[in-house]
Amino acid sequence: MKRLRKLILIPNTSKYIDSVKLGALISYLVSLECELSMFDCDKSALSDLPEYAAQIGEYSADSAYDAAVVLGGDGSIIEAAHRLIGKNVPLIGINFGHIGFLTELEAGEFTDIGRAVMGEYTLEKRMMLDAAVYDENHDEKCRYTVLNDVVITNGPIARLIGFDIYCDGVKTDFWRADGIIASTPTGSTAYSLSAGGPVLDPSLECICLTPICPHTLSSRPLIFHAGTEIGISGIRSNNSSVYLNADGRDAVQLYDGWSVEIKRSPCETELIRIKDRGFIGVLHSKLSEK
Fold it and tell me: Out of 3.10.290.10, 3.60.20.10, 1.10.10.10, 2.60.200.30, which CATH number does the structure's domain 128-266 have?
């Protein structure tokens, strides 16, 4: 693979990032002749490191970058993926979070990033989903692209919601549940797993629908091939508020007569891998922690 020279540093400024480790990482990357940039909104991470500020440029949407180094957990990777949609910038994560399914290195392993810089890495593609929300006249209200999942759930009062599920325009099922999760294979180890959904190898290309606390024995997770267009309509809210949440970062309220269409996105997220662990190795090590 090609050598990585132009890098974007993306620290999670809402988490505590050890300034000593951050400074050591910057020094190490500079010693490898990397050109570093940051988003302006992330520069606060350098507040205790004024000596490094001059060595880091400002991110420009018009420039080409070889990779982004993300400091945080899985949420940080997802945030970075959203920022860089359509930019063809692969991500390598250094875990300063908790489980870190998507991150490649732990905080104490940051010097291993030198292998990636020198071209010793592989690229792992992760599919994404597009979700469009329509009103009762089928006018599009909003659209989201997600790496993990789209969640439809009720508001502060716990009441069952009814959903009609469509597959390529054909009604497939009717669910009564607290909500529904549409996830990618990447998102199968997130909220969907907690709701009883299956763990999917991220190399698969499919869409998983998982009901949240279903009220019937027959309502079980469904897995569709990646080319399926999924429709969710006929939402029966029982006088409670219903919201769609996209990757835990964007939310919109759904009203009577509104519908949601979910399908594979043309966008993808690329992750840089330098360890030879495989998905099962990662799954075992992460789910056995803490």
Answer: 2.60.200.30
Is 90 exceeded by the pLDDT of residue 217?
A: no
Active site residues: 74
At 273, list the tokens: 């891998």
Which tokens is 46 given?
């350098």
Quick one: DSSP state of residue 187?
G
51-74 pLDDT, tens digit per residue, is 888 889 999 999 999 999 999 999
| Whole-number Å distance between alpha carbons of 97 and 93 | 10
Q: What is the torsional sign of CA 179, 127, 286, 282?
A: positive
Q: Name the pTM for this structure.
A: 0.91
CA distance 194 to 191: 5
Q: ∠ CA 224-125-80 to the nearest 5 degrees?
A: 105
